[in-house]
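Sync notes, pocket subgroup
Present: LS, DG
LS reminded everyone that the earlier model was apo-only. Rerun requested with iron/sulfur cluster included. Inputs:
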Amino acid sequence: MLSKEYVSSEIIVPLIYRKYMKEQLDRLEELRNERIIYVTDLVSCSHKLKLRRLYPELSLRFEPGAVIGNLIHAGLEEILSEEGYQVEYPVERGFEVNGVEYILKGRVDAFHPEKKLVVEIKSSRDTQNKPHEHHVYQLQVYLNLLEVDKGILIYITPDGFLEYSVEREKINIKALIKTLVNDEIHPRWSWECRYCLFRRICSYAYVEK
Ligand code: SF4
C-alpha cells in the first residue's frame, strides 16, 4: 500500500504518453493506404496487414514494454549517431505487383554510409532463442533494398547483449509483396497469432496447443 506521504504526480508519464501516442496517431491515415506496405509487413502474417487496414485503431497501444523498447532504441541511436551513423534512415522503393504500384517503406535503425553497414536494434526480455528468424529476415530485406552486404543485429536485454553479423543473401522482395497483396500466408510464423492484436476478429487465428 502507498504511504500517505506519497502522492501521485502525473507529470512525466503524460509527457511520454503524448509523444508516444502522437507518433502512432500521425501514422493512422497512412495505415489505411492500400498502396503502402512496410518492411515489417513483409515478415509478418499477410492477413494481419489486411485487418490493420480495416481496423487501424486497434493497433494503438500504450504498453510499458513497447515504450521501453522505444527508449532503448533512442538511447543506442544517439550513441551511434555520434559515431557517424545515420539513424532512423528512411528506405523507400516502388514495386509493381499484379499491375498495381506499391510503395515499400521502412526505416533502418542506423546506417553507416562509408562503412556500408546497417544496424538493427532489438530489445527483449531475455537472451533465449536469439536471433529470431523474423528479425534476421527483416535485416535481410533492408540489406537487399539498400544493396549493402553486411548488417548487424543487436539485442539489448536485461540478461545481456547479443550482437550478430549478417551477410546479405538475395531475397525476392517482389514475391514477398505478392504474398501480402494476395493474402497468402496467415500466419507466417507459428507463434504469431498468440501475440496478434487482431486475433479476436480473425477467422484464421491459430492458437498453439
Ligand atoms: S490472428 Fe493470426 S492469422 Fe489472424 S491476423 Fe493475426 S497473425 Fe494473422
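DG: Residues 45, 47-48, 51, 186-187, 192-193, 196, 198-199, 202, 204-206 surround iron/sulfur cluster (CB under 6 Å).
LS: The chain has one domain: 12-188.
Action: DG to write up.
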